[in-house]
Amino acid sequence: MIFEYAEKHAQSKTDESELEKEKLALFDSYMERMLARRVKIDRLETELKSLESYVDSEKYESRERVF
Fold first, then answer.
1. What secondary structure letter does DSSP report for 43?
2. pLDDT given at position 49
3. Can you tell me the distance from the alpha carbon of 55 to that of 44, in angstroms, rounded to the nearest whole number?
4. For residues 4-43, b (16+ Cβ closer than 10 Å) or e, as one string?
5. What is the rounded CA–CA span in Å between residue 21 and residue 36?
6. pLDDT for the residue 34
7. Tens digit of pLDDT for each residue in 4-41?
8. Contact at 8 Å (CB) between 65 and 51?
9. What contacts 66, CB < 8 A, 6 or more positions away?
10. 53 — pLDDT class (breaks 50, 70, 90)
11. What is the pLDDT of residue 5?
12. Distances in Å between the alpha carbon of 28 and those of 8, 17, 21, 40, 49?
């Protein structure tokens, strides 16, 4: 009976370790996606500012903003 308990305990430790590894892998994947989104958002904001400055530099007769 003691050996069965020890075996189950060892198995649960292994399962917990594997579970922690899976949690870390999921978290790493999540952080990579968030970083990629942040980079994309930064790039789009830069492009938007560039377009806004281009539009502002052009002289339109109606003086209406494009955006």
1. H
2. 94
3. 16
4. eeeeeeeeeeeeeeeeeeeeeeeeeeeeeeeeeeeeeeee
5. 22
6. 94
7. 766 776 676 666 777 788 888 888 899 999 999 999 99
8. no
9. 55
10. confident
11. 65
12. 30, 16, 10, 18, 31
User: Are the C-beta atoms of residues 55 and 66 closer than 8 Å to each other?
Assistant: yes
Name the helix (H) or strand (E) containing 31. Answer: helix 2-57
Q: Which residue type is seen at 22?
A: E
Query: For tokens 């970083």, what's the residue?
Result: 35
Looking up tokens 């530099």 gives 57
Which residues have C-beta within 8 Å of that of residue 67, sequence separation ≥ 6?
51, 52, 55
